[in-house]
Protein 1
Amino acid sequence: MTDATLTHTYTHADLPGLMGLMTGDEKHGPAATSTLDVLWVLYDRVLRVSPESREDPGRDRFLLSKGHGPMAYYAVLAAKGFLPVEWLPGFGSYDSPLGHHPDRTLVPGAEIGSGSLGHGLPIAVGTALGLRAQGLDEPRVWTLVGDAELDEGSNHEAIAFAGPAGLDRLHTVVVDNSSATYARPGGIAARFEAAGWSALTVDGRDHEALYAAFTAPHPGRPHVVVARVEPKSA
Amino acid sequence: MDTMRDRFAPVVSRLLDEDPRVAVVLAAIGTDGFAGAARRHPRRVVDVGIREQLLVGAAAGLALTGLRPVVHTFASFLVERPFEQVKLDLGHQDAGAVLVSAAASFDWPAGGYTHMAPGDVALLDTLDDWTVHVPGHPDEAETLLRHAVAAGDDKVYVRLSVQSNGRALPVDGERFRTVREGRSGVVVAVGPMLDAVLAATEGLDVTVLYATTVRPFDGAALRWATETAGTDVVLVEPYLAGTSTAAANDALADVPHRVLGLGVGRRELRRYGQLEEHVAAHGLDARSLRERIGGFFGAAVRP
């Protein structure tokens, strides 16, 4: 299902154009653009996964938990050759595999289907456990959640477990666009740190800062990167 | 006699030894039984603590890496509390797991309604593609657990109960079994309801089918039974009354038929006490069943 005809190498500068091919989910527009830089840096420089290796047991996993506004996700997957650019204009239509929330059984490269909040991080915990149980100690597991999504209790079950369990292959990136109904007292990173995670907070638009935070060592502990972007309401 | 649940940890511990795909996920309930297995397979026996949403979500993640997770806690906390995880993390992700519950509809009456789950099978019925095993004896539970774990990446629910029949019958994880043949009606006894149904129908001219795998529903067996015994059907289920009525109706859709669904009443009883008292309160003891079954079939059923 990969785009064998992909000859053009897409760059970060192409992403707005790719996103522009998708229409019909303007309600989720801010949610989509908030994740754009995080997704790009992960897929361009961090994740060891490609269209060719997307079934390889040793690949890195990226679980998009925040499935709302997946245009940036689809644009990055298209730019990296997981799915054809020609699919993008059909976004949300009956015949398109690309919905307003992604479905793992329809989107090449999507590790999970998401949209209902609070599912990605618990599944990522299980994925990290499953890889560890099989002696696959190389692959890293990443999941992307929103700051408001963190309000879901299921995430707190996962955060509280993963730290003491020492799941050091588990990584979470929280895209913080200040959309939580009640700001978390002490900040988002503090919540993770209290549960034994390694935590860094960076500018979610600064690619070098994101890359440094994504690749920072965190022996024995799961790692969270809080990527701050402009508020949703701005 | 030991209970179905007494068999669970020993059987699954052996499966952990035999099959490197098997993993067990627990949420602080039932962990003692897996202490030995956890020492032998520390990475494949996971206790997530009292976190039932994580319990099911983590099982899905394990399955997505290729393992076969066996997930266990009380039915209320396994199916009802994390129901959206069951629907999305397993169903929508197309990931499989074996969910094994304990406590059933009212195994611990003194514990009250918080630990009762008569609606679990009906709730799973809102989802597609689940296999549901309801063993009626610890030996059957052992067989059906093995079937469940061996079932590829299927989604399987195994409902363990302290309610049990006196003796085990051979079960195959698929078909209903004919245990008595008559000419004036069909009674389907599910799992631990069999002994009471056999006592209730003693001397009545009815066919009794025994169902330990209720989903998929063996419509062919029901249909075949009605060819000699007629199309009056009574379902006796150890969970919510009427749970399988739609499945029986579907099996008989093109013939005139009547179906009576007996099982646990919908209304919350708000009583503690003993299991037998709850069985009687829901009209599932042999005497009540005889009255209700006989009344439904009418005079024709009596020899």
Note: Residues 4-159 of chain B form a domain with the Rossmann fold fold (CATH 3.40.50.970).
Protein 2
Amino acid sequence: MLGIDWYLALSAILFCIGMIGVLIRKNAIVIFMCVELMLNAVNLSLISFSSHYGNIDGQILVFFALAVAAAEAVVGLAIIIAIFRNNLSVDISRVNLLRW
Amino acid sequence: MITYFFIFLAVLAIASGLAMVISKNTVNSALFLVLNMVSLSGLYLLLQAQFMAVIQVLVYAGAIMVLFLFVIMLLNVDDEQSLFNKFRIKYFVAFLFGVGVFTQLIYSIGSFSNTLPVVSEKMAQVGTVEAVGDVLFTKYLLPFELTAILLTAAVVGALIVAQHKIKPAREE
């Protein structure tokens, strides 16, 4: 059986891929998908801890993270649609509503 | 055998994650994210968390990604043409940040490397739907019901935000 280190390392790699994606992409929808990737990486590390310690609480935490991610996706996509109606674009470099 | 499965799924997850970030077409990157989530659900099966694997496919790869694809198709987003065409300082800084965070994470994992346990023997009974439901409806009942309120509030808020009539700025 594999040790927990491998799962944690994979989780770290996925988290960093998601983070780089958030930093370099300009399409708002792709940025949201990169946030989902980072959430998934954290879920993987929680489940591997839960499985390796034989404790169910980590999986319950993943369940709640999943529900919060669903709520976040719904509200975020609604905001993206509202911004698209205003600007006719989802390019975040063209959105300057809150720019000082 | 489990090691080979792990290597296969890990390579699949990393490759589809990279492809999601790199691909220009938004629909392609959404489909790569679906592949990533399915491979993560396979990893959950390797960790003997069966319920979470099923939920991952049902909720993430099924529901949330369908929502994303629906929004992509609805908005008819044009592709980013100038992705990685020329060198920008932004890409370099982002890559530097990513490598920095990755090094920190690997360092902190490596310093705990020998103290972490192997897979627990009682995990075969722990990961089932029955065990998850048992804890969810006794110890975590209040957070579970708060989740229901959160989801309802999110749906109502999304309806209000998306239905609100705003005049497009370009018409004025």
Note: The first helix of chain A runs from residue 4 to 24.
